[in-house]
Amino acid sequence: MHTNTGPTTMFLERVCIATDGSDLAVRAAEMAVLLARAGAGRVVAASVAQPQFCMPAQCDAAPSPQAAQAEFERALCAAHTHADTVRRIAQASGVSCDTAIPLASIPGPEIIRVAEAHGCDLIVMGAHGPNDANRLFTGSVAQYVLANSHIPVLLLRDPREAARPDYTEDVAA
């Protein structure tokens, strides 16, 4: 029988920082670097290169091989830029940073795969709040990672996007 002798401490060997290049992802990277610095001082910047292609019903024709190649290159360049931002944040704080740039249309599984492959103890990422443009899929990547990762996940939200608490009480008449 195991008895609890007190609170357990989580020592962070390596933190996975999932980034999409947004301001919120940069703030999440800054928080993750602080956490990593308190541990072993190692992070992995994971930025999934997501090429964007339209569905056949939405396009007149399939993209040419040259257009497809250009889209792959655009997606990879953007992902490298996002990961490099995290690397600069880490290096400025004296934290070692590796990068992983998987190519996928759905980022959630790739973020988990990268964290597992690098032996990460924590995944840190921003969780975008609702916006008028895309209410159905808001936070779907963060929700996927949170629901499917056996590695602990720390989600950071923009406080401006969080719902205000309702302090009113229902009073029976």
Give structural notes.
This protein has helices spanning 23-38, 65-92, 107-117, 140-148; strands at 15-18, 42-46, 96-100, 122-126, 153-156. It is of the alpha/beta class and 173 residues long. Helix 1 packs across helix 2. The longest helix has 28 residues, at 65-92.
The general outline is: globular
Biggest sheet overview? 5 strands, parallel
Question: What kind of oligomer do you see?
Answer: single chain
Strand neighbour order, sheet with most strands:
3-2-1-4-5
**What structural class do helix, strand and pairing data support?**
alpha/beta
* Contiguous helical run count: 4
Q: Tell how many strands the DSSP assignment holds.
A: 5
Unreliable sequence segments:
131-138
Mean pLDDT: 84
Summarize the structure.
The protein has 4 helices and 5 strands; from the N terminus they run E-H-E-H-E-H-E-H-E. With 173 residues, it is of the alpha/beta class.
Topology:
Layout (H helix, E strand, L loop, with lengths): L14 E4 L4 H16 L3 E5 L18 H28 L3 E5 L6 H11 L4 E5 L13 H9 L4 E4 L17
Parallel strand pairs: 1-2, 1-4, 2-3, 4-5
Helix pairs in contact: 1-2, 3-4
Write out key terms for the chains shown.
173 residues, alpha/beta, five-stranded parallel sheet, 5 strands
